[in-house]
Amino acid sequence: MTVLVWITEATWPACVDAARVRAARVHAAPDGIALLHVSDDEVAAAAHRAYAGLLGRGHRPDRDPGVRLEALARPAAADLLEAAAHRLGRPCVFLEHHGRVEHEVVRAAAGAELLICARDGEPGRPGPRSLGRATRFVVDHAECPVLLVWPYGEETPVPPEPLVPPGSGGWA
Asked: What pTM was computed for the model?
């Protein structure tokens, strides 16, 4: 079973918890879970265009905020994937994509048996407004089943880490 977990900065804990529960229920193979993070290249491009538009061409590239954002994006994505893998507590595959987020998620989900993602719209509003633009696109276009989870908020506590059977080394 291949489970793809879409990791975003705001909602990743709920998605990882759903994947952990799902994998335990179906006894997924160790390499059956992939964590996907997509960096939106448009953010860095917009910063570069704004810098070039305000100051014109020919200015120092080391001061270009677009270049700085690109340099920060890769380690930030790696850190986020590492944190998600640690919370998952089982072997998994990391997928780092760049581009238009919704298109990259749909493309990555093409071979998956399940995509797990979180609602990212207006909190507490069931229905269409509980999904942001990218998530709505993914739900509409993914070629596999999609499991939507509610992200944890202040009113919904994060479930505790599961206990490991006695004698196996403590906490998972």
From this structure: 0.75
